[in-house]
Write a structure and sequence with these properties.
mainly alpha; Arc Repressor Mutant, subunit A; 2 strands; elongated
């Protein structure tokens, strides 16, 4: 999988909002933490808002927050905002999704790549943002 830069920034932004559910997160905080362009991040945050995954609050004390609880937003939800709907039917060996060799029904390589793509899809779909920001609970000593 080769995702665009906006996808990476969208994931960073979503994780920061998930990490701080009780307050607004600013564009500057995210840009500083991940050392990314605030200008590009603005466009990414706008896409997250348009998609319904985030909310924006304008003004001096404004910022961004998730529109839903972090446990109900998966990595796949964020990735698809920037990459479009991930399709499991296309051939990963073709640049444009077309049949590169004319033998898709018997291609053994395609079967391997299909399995890899399915695993990636279902992994992204199974991981909520909340699971990436939860802190571990310290183990209690036995009495």
């Amino acid at each position: 999988m080769n995702w665009n830069k906006s996808t990476r920034l969208g994931l960073y932004a979503a994780l920061e909002m998930a990490r701080a559910p009780d307050r607004l997160v600013t564009k500057g905080e995210i840009a500083s933490r991940y050392r990314v362009s605030a200008h590009h991040l603005s466009k990414v945050l706008q896409q997250l808002v348009r998609s319904g995954l985030a909310r924006a609050v304008a003004g001096v004390a404004g910022g961004y927050r998730l529109a839903k609880p972090a446990k109900s937003i998966t990595l796949l939800d964020v990735v698809e905002v920037f990459e479009g709907k991930l399709e499991l039917k296309r051939c990963l060996l073709a640049d444009d999704g077309a049949d590169p060799c004319g033998a898709l029904s018997t291609c053994r390589l395609k079967r391997v790549f299909d399995e890899i793509e399915h695993q990636a899809y279902f992994t992204l779909k199974s991981i909520p943002l909340s699971s990436l920001v939860e802190t571990a609970t310290p183990a209690r000593g036995k009495a």
